[in-house]
Amino acid sequence: MLQFLTENKIYYVIYTDGSKGSDYVRAAIYDPHVKFSQSFVLPNPCSIFTAEAYAVYQALMRIRQMNSCKYFLIVSDSLSLIKALANLKITYKSNYILYFVKEIIYQYYLNYSDTRETRHNSKTITARSHRTGWGCKR
């Protein structure tokens, strides 16, 4: 991942994470460009997947507020979330936050895509989890 970031300096990078304990569920984002971090408290019944998805949603909201960010990279350690976002279908069984995330990405795509240039202006990279190997936390 470090090599990718070094070679692709055009991307605006935001890191995300979700966590769940016995009495809390939280999502967080970190923007290293301005050294900004923010944590969000979610209701206790939420899953770790929901926390990870909510963190990505908040990262997209931050990018959307900047209005001039054409290329961005959201770094997540949730392989299951990235796989869910890569799936083209959202069904009634899908986590509701996935709908909002995909809608923002689609609107971003419509606003910034140009037939003369590449239509891929976002990337996904899985980061090593701090608890276990690549991807999932448990």
Instruction: Please tell me the CATH architecture by its name.
Output: 2-Layer Sandwich
Q: Could you tell me the strand content as a percent range?
A: 15-25%
Structural class: alpha/beta
Name of the CATH homologous superfamily = Ribonuclease H-like superfamily/Ribonuclease H
Question: Helix segment count?
Answer: 4
Specify the CATH class. Alpha Beta
Summarize model confidence as the mean pLDDT: 80
Number of strands: 5
Organism: Mythimna separata (Oriental armyworm)
GO molecular function, one term: nucleic acid binding
InterPro entries: RNaseH-like_sf (IPR012337), RNaseH_sf (IPR036397)
Protein name: RNase H type-1 domain-containing protein
Quick recap:
One of its GO terms (molecular function) is nucleic acid binding. The chain has 138 residues and is of the alpha/beta class. Helix content is 36%, strand content 24%.
Structural summary, described in words:
GO terms for molecular function: nucleic acid binding. The chain has 138 residues and is of the alpha/beta class. It has a single domain (2-126), classed as Ribonuclease H-like superfamily/Ribonuclease H (Nucleotidyltransferase, domain 5, 2-Layer Sandwich). Helices cover 36% and strands 24% of the residues. The protein is built from four helices and five strands. Strands 3-2-1-4-5 form a five-stranded mixed beta sheet, covered by helices on one side. Mean pLDDT is 80; it is low at 115-120 and 131-138.
